[in-house]
Inverse folding.
């Protein structure tokens, strides 16, 4: 075993002892590891088979491809997408913030709210949903309370329930419409990055053609010079394909996976709220909410039962 491995594993053990979510740390490392593997595989493999790395240094080819891609990105997307593009790398690095602990907390919040509504009536929720920042219930669940959009979603529909909304089908349709709108807003960002992945190979060809045109203007030069010019031109094709399938495409898929995890968070709230409206007991309502989650982050029935039991003991 390499000497570095025990140190690496010991570092993870220390993080676990300090209460750090090791899976989350590893999830964040995947971006860096992936980038390193892509770069080492491509450039390391090229150098290993006898290629000269200095030939690949064609900065103006990169300016043509990436500059044109940036300009096309600005032409194609509305200001809201351009503004959101600044936070893409943060989202890619952090990954989904909704892990099993976050979903356990969400289920615990729903259980507490539904139990209050069952024991004292839906009107007892009014003070909490009108001012969640000062709510003693929301204060027990800091991860959820820190998520402004999730708090707004939960409070909006609980408010409608306290105001007397009784038709669960109409409320479900309204939830579906809001979630679909939210999904479309996120999908525009994913589609913008995917469009970069689809377009940069063609822009690489543009750079290569310009390089060939430049070469043809130097046709009277000796073969050694022409070889260098042709090689530089072909770097354009390489660079366009490389950034498309090595970076932009995987970035789009990573964003899509992150947004799908967020969608499940809201679908869990939707399932719980509709079950509560149907008159189910709090424990049954949150079981509806639990079943809406993906298997890798879905708490078990026992974990949820233990979590809600500890909430009851604390109250």
């Amino acid at each position: 075993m390499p000497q570095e491995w025990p140190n690496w594993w010991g570092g993870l053990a220390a993080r676990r002892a300090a209460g750090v979510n090791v899976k989350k740390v590893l999830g964040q490392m995947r971006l860096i590891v992936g980038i390193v593997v892509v770069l080492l595989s491509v450039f390391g493999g090229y150098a290993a088979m006898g290629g000269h790395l200095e030939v690949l240094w064609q900065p103006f080819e990169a300016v043509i491809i990436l500059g044109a891609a940036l300009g096309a990105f600005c032409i194609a997307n509305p200001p809201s997408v351009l503004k959101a593009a600044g936070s893409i790398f943060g989202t890619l690095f952090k990954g989904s913030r909704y892990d099993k602990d976050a979903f356990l907390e969400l289920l615990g919040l729903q259980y507490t709210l539904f139990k209050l509504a069952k024991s004292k009536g839906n009107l007892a929720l009014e003070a909490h949903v009108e001012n969640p920042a000062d709510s003693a219930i929301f204060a027990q669940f800091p991860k959820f309370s820190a998520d402004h959009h999730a708090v707004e979603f939960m409070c909006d529909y609980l408010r409608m329930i306290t105001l007397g909304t009784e038709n669960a089908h109409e409320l479900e349709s309204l939830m579906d419409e809001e979630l679909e709108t939210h999904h479309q807003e996120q999908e525009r960002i994913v589609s913008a990055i995917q469009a970069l992945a689809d377009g940069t190979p063609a822009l690489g060809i543009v750079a290569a053609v310009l390089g060939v045109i430049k070469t043809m203007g130097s046709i009277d030069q000796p073969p050694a010079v022409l070889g260098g010019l042709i090689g530089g031109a072909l770097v354009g094709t390489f660079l366009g394909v490389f950034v498309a399938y090595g970076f932009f495409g995987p970035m789009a898929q990573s964003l899509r996976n992150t947004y799908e995890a967020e969608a499940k968070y809201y679908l869990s709230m939707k399932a719980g709220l509709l079950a509560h409206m149907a008159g189910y007991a709090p424990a049954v309502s949150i079981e509806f909410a639990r079943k809406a989650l993906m298997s890798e982050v879905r708490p078990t029935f026992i974990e949820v039962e233990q979590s809600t039991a500890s909430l009851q003991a604390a109250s």
User: Anything to note?
Assistant: The chain has two domains: 1-51, 52-315.
